[in-house]
Each structure stands twice: as C-alpha cells, then as structure tokens.
Design brief:
single chain, alpha/beta, Rossmann fold, 2 domains, 8-stranded mixed β-sheet, 5-stranded parallel β-sheet, 16 helices, 13 strands
C-alpha cells in the first residue's frame, strides 16, 4: 500500500514525520511519499521521504493569512504556478489506489478531496478553544462563528464527512467532541505535537531557584527582532528579581547562533567557560554567558531537554510555545511585529491556550507579570492542569499510525 502525506507548514511537516516514524516501526514495507505545500520540507528530507512535486520557500513562510502584502509577495514569487503544479501531481498520484493523509488546515484537506483517493485528516491548525471553553462561548467569539457552531466551517465539515474520508484526528478533546456531533469520524487520539518531548530529570548541582526558557521563534529576520525584545525583557527581570536565575535559549538548528550572540554584548553579557554552569544538557555546542550572578545558555541541539528543564518561558514562537505549555508550564508572551508573531497571532494563541499564556504588550512588563505568577502558586497549579488538557498526552502519533494501518489492511482485504 502507498501513502501520501500532504502538509502545509514546517510544524505540520514535523507532525507528519512523527506519524511516519510510527508507521515505519509497525510496517517498514509501507511505501510513503510527501508533498510539503509550504517551504522546502526539510523534516521530510531528513527522513528520506520522496517528494511528488516541486517545492519552494516563499517570502511569507506560509503566513499569508496574516498580511495581504505577504500574499502578494508570494504570488510574485510563483505561488500560483507552484500550487497548480502540486495539485496536478496530487491528482495524478490519486489514481494509484493509495491513501492520503492531509496534515494542517483546509488546503491539504481540499487537495486530498480533489485527488479522488481515500484520505484521513490530522487537523493541527484549528481548535474549538479559539471559540469556547468546556462550558461557554468566549466573549469575543463573533455571531457568525456562533451561527456556524464550530471552528470548522460547513465547507470544511463537508470535506471531513465525505465517504472517502476514513478518519479525522483533531488536536484536542473538545474539538473531537464537537465534530462528532456532526457525524464526522473524529477520534480523540491526542496531539502528535507532544510526542517525544518528555525526557528524564537532568542532574543539576546548586540548582537555581528559577529557570526561564527563551523562545524567539525560528524564521528570519523575525526571530532576531524577537530576540532583541526578549533580551530587553531579560534585562527587566534581572533588575527586579533578587533570587538566582538561569536563562536558557532554545535556538532553531536552522539559524546561525552567531546572529543571536552578537546582540548579547550590548546587554552586558560576557562569554563564560562551559564549566561555569553545571547543567548536563546534551548539546556540545552550547554557549554560556554571564551577567552579574545570572547565566544564559544558548542551545541548538537539546530542544526537548530545554523545555523539560525550565520552569517558565518568555516566548514569541508558535509551535514551541504550545509544546512548552503542553508540559504544564506557564508562558509570558510579548506582542511582536513580525509576519507570524504579531498582535493578532498572539491574541489567537492566548485564546487557544487560555490561562497558560500571560500576554504583555512591552518587554518591560514581563518582569511585573513574572512577579504576579510567582506570588500565585494556585494559578501555577491551574496552568499545569490547563496546559496538559489543551495539548493532550503524548502517544498520539502511534495511535494515528495504528489506525492508518488498520485502514490499509482493510482496503487490501477488499481488493
């Protein structure tokens, strides 16, 4: 049996790969190909998954819904021609009697429907938490959204109810239950985003009181703009916080670490020897800086360990923020000006993740928000419960893979 994964974003590519790895463990003989609609599909390339159509990095990075100017830049760079070529390849592939797994939002789902093949849908982009909690609509939810009754609009539900759609895998329980009300084959397997994140406790000597993770995002030049705002917030925290602190920055491996370190000298940080901090992070290329009694460690190859080790995050990121919150930890988010992490994105993220995100407009406000969190241990407990509920437990990738295998076996028996 052949499988085609269609996804439309770097985070979606990673989620698809998590499922692919589980499928390979169950049945290494399954033939799998992919179509990353946004970007160049590095996550697939690392797994040696063949592409069925051309791919290209666009100026918007896939965030055309944030800014019409970004859409126009993509069009000028060949977006329409690229999309038509990809659609043609999907339709051709659909004649091969394989199954399609769409990952993301309506675009890969629409491509799967247009292919003529049977398909499943891993819905990563939408959640009912954007509109409601477990009890009521959010006050900011529009009348039109309340009329439609779900974050998934009728045309999206039409694609999910199609007889060729053999399964839908929403990102959380509340979304699954809502779709089930519309007789959609939705399954509450959890969110693959949380797979592979939990690691064992790290041995630490003289552990500081508070460990803060810095997440500037993964796209240039926005990540560097975010980094400058985050460093301003760090300055404010150091000036106000009397206890020992340690900061850890998780920088994407695709970015140059030197671009981030050059800003540190302007904020009174000095390069320090690796042995000046006794934290056994599995990243031989980490860099340590000091400022007064405070240490800042930059890592690029210990992502899960950084998320597991830290107590709280100052973040201006998408997927990484959600994963940190899914571990039951709070995030202080700063409104940015980028194509991704701007005010609208931050507000949407706050609705999605609830009390786990404490949003501020300016970096200087982070220190005050931190003090508020430290003074409310009951709120920390609520945040822990809320984050795990909204992101779900790990293991979703394996459950989805097992479900797909059953569908493959069923279709094989019927041919």
């Amino acid at each position: 049996m052949k499988l085609l994964f269609i996804s439309n974003g770097h985070g979606e590519d990673i989620i698809a790969v998590k499922v692919i790895r589980q499928l390979r463990q169950i049945n290494p003989k399954i033939s799998m190909v992919c179509l990353p609609m946004v970007g160049e599909g590095f996550a697939y390339a690392k797994e040696n998954i063949p592409f069925i159509a051309p791919v290209k990095k666009m100026p918007s990075g896939g965030f055309i819904y944030m800014d019409n100017k970004q859409l126009w830049q993509d069009v000028k760079n060949g977006l329409i021609t690229l999309t038509l070529a990809q659609l043609k390849a999907v339709k051709l592939w659909g004649k091969n009697e394989g199954l399609i797994i769409a990952v993301g939002d309506i675009l890969p789902l629409l491509f799967a429907w247009l292919s003529g093949a049977n398909y499943g849908f891993i819905g990563t982009a939408k959640s009912e938490y954007y509109l409601r909690d477990e009890e009521n609509w959010l006050t900011e939810t529009s009348k039109i959204d309340r009329y439609f009754g779900s974050i998934y609009y009728p045309w999206e539900r039409f694609l999910m109810k199609n007889k060729r759609c053999f399964g839908v895998f929403p990102r959380d329980t509340i979304t699954t239950k809502t779709l089930q009300k519309y007789k959609i084959l939705a399954h509450d397997f959890g969110n693959p985003m949380m797979d592979d994140l939990t690691v064992s406790d790290l041995p630490v000597d003289n552990e500081p009181l508070l460990k803060i993770l810095l997440l500037p995002g993964s796209r240039l030049p926005e990540a560097l703009h975010n980094w400058q705002l985050i460093l301003n917030a760090v300055d404010a925290i150091i000036n106000r916080q009397s206890s020992d602190l340690i900061f850890m920055a998780a920088i994407s491996p695709s970015l140059s670490l030197s671009d981030f370190t050059e800003y540190l000298s302007t904020h009174n940080w000095q390069l320090a020897p690796l042995n000046s901090v006794n934290i056994l992070i599995n990243d031989s290329k980490r860099i340590v800086f000091t400022n007064k009694r405070v240490k800042l460690i930059l890592c690029q190859n210990a992502y899960s360990e950084c998320l597991n080790y830290c107590d709280l995050s100052v973040a201006m990121a998408g997927t990484a923020t959600e994963q940190f919150i899914g571990l039951g930890k709070p995030v202080i988010a700063i409104v940015g000006n980028g194509p991704q992490y701007n005010k609208q994105f931050a507000m949407n993220q706050t609705r999605l993740l609830g009390i786990s995100v404490q949003l501020v407009n300016k970096p200087v406000e982070v220190a005050e928000k931190l003090q508020e969190l430290l003074s409310q241990p009951d709120l920390w407990q609520l945040i822990s419960v809320n984050g795990k509920k909204r992101l779900g437990e790990k293991g979703a990738g394996e459950k989805i893979a097992q479900y797909i295998i059953k569908k493959i076996e069923s279709s094989t028996e019927n041919t």
